[in-house]
Amino acid sequence: MSIIDDILSKTDMDEIRKETEENYRQYVNPFALRMFKNASLDIIEGKREGASVWDISGQKYIDCVTGAGIFNVGRHNKEIVEGLKKALDTYDMGGWISIVRERGILAKKLAEITPGDLKYSLFCCGGGEAIEVAVKLARGHTDKTEIICMENGYHGVTGFALPATGRDVYKQPFAPLTPGYRHVRYNDIGAVEEAITEETAAVLLEPIQGEGGIIPADDAYLRQLRELCTKNEILLVFDEVQTGFGRTGKMFCAEHSGVNPDIMVLAKSLSGGLYPLSCAVFTEEIAEFLMTHPFIIINSFGGTSLACLVALATIEYIENNDLPGHATRMGGRFMAGLSALKGKYPKLVLDVRGRGLMLGMEFPEDSIGPRMAYQLKQNGVISIYTFNNPRIIRIMPTLVITEQEVDFVLEAFDRSLAEISKQEEKNAAR
Amino acid sequence: MATGDEIWEALADFTEQCNNNKRLRKMQRDWTKILHFKAIDMDDSFTMKVVEGEIVKNDKGTVGTPDIIVETDSETMCDMFWGDINPTQKYLRGEIKVKGTQEDVMRIDVITAVIWPEV
Amino acid sequence: MAAQLTKGQRDEIKKQALDDFSRYVNPQKARVLKNAGLDIIEGKREGAAVWDITGKKYIDCITSAGSFNVGRRNPEIIDALKKALDEYDLGVFLLCSKPKADLAKRLAEITPGDLQYVMYGSGGGEANDFAIKLARGYTMKNDVISTLKAYHGHTGFSLAAIGRDEYRKPFGSMVPGYKHVPYNNLAAMEEAVTEDTAAIIIELVQGEGGIHLATDDYVKGLRKLCDDHEVLLIFDEIQTGFGRTGKMFCCDYSGVVPDILTIAKSLGGALYPISATVYREELGDFVMTHAFTHLSTFGGSDIGCMVGLAVIDFIVKNKLPEHAAKMGERFQKGFDELLTRYPELLMEVRRKGLMMGLQYTNDSIGPRMSYQLAQNGVMAIYTGNEPSVMRLMPSLVIQEDEVDFVVDALDKSMSEIMKQGGIEKY
Hints:
Largest sheet of chain A: 7 strands, mixed
Strand order of the largest sheet of chain B: 3-2-1-4-5
Helix content of chain A: 40-55%
Helix content of chain B: 40-55%
Oligomer: heterotrimer
CATH architecture of the largest domain in chain A: 3-Layer(aba) Sandwich
Number of strands of chain A: 17
CATH superfamily of chain B: SCP2 sterol-binding domain
Number of helices of chain B: 5
Strand order of the largest sheet of chain A: 4-12-11-10-7-5-6
């Protein structure tokens, strides 16, 4: 039974939903399912195409979550799907010990498109895993242990990434964690200066904080950071997991400021929304640590032949269709609309911000984020609040979104804000 | 509209249910919070003190610095303590207002999910 | 792959690939592999075999440490993946989906005892990281006990559990609270358990540690120890799972059910990264009160789950565990002969199903055997934490004649090394 089959009857749909929910309740996470239902996010994804996703019941939504930036090339991108299928006629994962040819080709491509003298790539599966590699390379290369990271940053949940994540709820139940991480205020160069010691190995940050609430770093701040790091022989690590591959209107967000990091971490849209892949890209100097320790970081699933071929097809698609340029244009259209909404709902909308198609709308209190998500869903848009800051709703659609779709989302925002205004007035009257 | 006494009674009922639920007590043992409940259609407020998952004290009025503030009308508040409504659904529809972290909001939902799984 | 290529073209591709790899991935890795005769650029892949781009065929006894149980480029799994690609993409990790739910149910069915809920990841280390986090979170205790020479992955919580310092040393401070005790030594474990012990994590056959087999008594003793002290028992079946040892899971031998089971590798059918942490219902209460504190963008993707379902179907339908047991015995006959013929080289063989380790008489023989075996058409390497042990983990679809081919290659290689000499202990 196909989930995208148009002739599927309503009874079949209901059957699939019932069975899926029951299995989820019994074998995955009963509470998560309850949360989804409460929030009206109990969508079971059926057809996926371009900027949209259809619930198996046939209801269409514009996806503004995109797994926090996995689907830059669009949901279920036909060209890349075909590329992967073709690859399946020849390849499989490839052995981890082998010299995977496709890995070399992708690494070369990444060296070309990443800024500055970033050159070598070490591949893994997920973003967090690549952050782990970055932290370890920094420690291994410098023989120092301290990592300066940012309040409200998000870098993942595994052992070396979790302590870098700047929020206690992710960490406290699992303590004690890997020591040596210091958190400072974002966009505050003085705070970094103060936190530097002789033991500092690296400064790790997102050029736009995603889960922290779509907060862009100032260009000047990044330039000062670069200078500070160079002066103190500290490595600068950019986590471009969410901002990479055209999301912010440039291939990489670092290009806006012109600041070149020593290590750049990539994941999410690297592999077209079809296959797990992440990597840390670093300079030749840092690679020397891996010369003396060639097998110290191993993994069986990182940079498989198939993953690398998908990534190459993805990058080609992004380049051929100038997705960064498109993201800039659509981002501009969004900003104009969102700013107008800010004017129209001054009590509800405190701020709209972002770069390219990494956008956020800020509300005066936490509860409005979840409520907006609920309203938007009723109006055909899937979006959620940022994890570290629920008063910001995230707008991160695919980069193939069209003008009409942008307008549709803006209209959904308008209606949702109108409904919440009404609720607030009603409450105030009580 | 419910009376202050009715809310107080419902709160006592809720407290008993929570404290007698062994599974819930174990699940919530890392949760120590002060909650304020405000009935917005009357001037009554209530304070609940939770220590390591146990509701150790309820007060009339607001006592201490709250971690979480729940605001709704007196009727909804009674329904919430009696398990007649799903509070998260009301929250997302703007009928119950909660000030606090999203994690604590979810914890409150966990409590109701454990003691009233069918709601 | 591209059968029409001339030898010259193939050589050119190989040269270019080695060059790219050295220039943009890792030059020293390329060099080490070249020296070991393992600078293979994989071309055709099928069943138990892989062909270098230049056309030379090898029986793959590395299989990324047990990632290819269903064989390389298994047509049924490829079809399932292609079919999945007709409809699915990764999906959104936050939402509920049919493939996620279906695979979770299937895993609950095939895993032993009352293992019930699933948290997905994309790699084995990630699965172990979550297992340890879950144990700490659920018990509200800190300490984790693992075993010497153990391997559990390179992410932080797992790396701290590895029983070998070399993997950790350059990276400075680790997650605190870990103890490492000798394997198969219940008394040592008893002594290490304290009031603050959250979990014991263990492989039932140490893979990287040199193919050491936990005895049934030891495993049963661990279960009792954990029950007595409210400690959670974690089995890392990343290498031993999915039929590798002759049972679906290695713990099926002792009948001991862990509180948390981690699986990865072969769940992805040699095609797609996916891993899972399967845990008992009771532990689900922690996940409930801490919803969304552990997330994985790529873990349990819709496509990955479809692949996982096809893998399990294939293993069950083709009775791969039984086949693994049978082929393992055929190997054993060959090993027994080699043991009598080359006592100066081969000291001992340790084996469970098709998880096999050859204990050589000293460290240098492992790398030298790798080189010789490559010349004789077999890919095999020594274990990460124990260079004197060669690991043989062919795909479980290996056929009798292929088993004989590997044994023959071992014979030829050992004979060559005897001729070369230099095997005395140093």
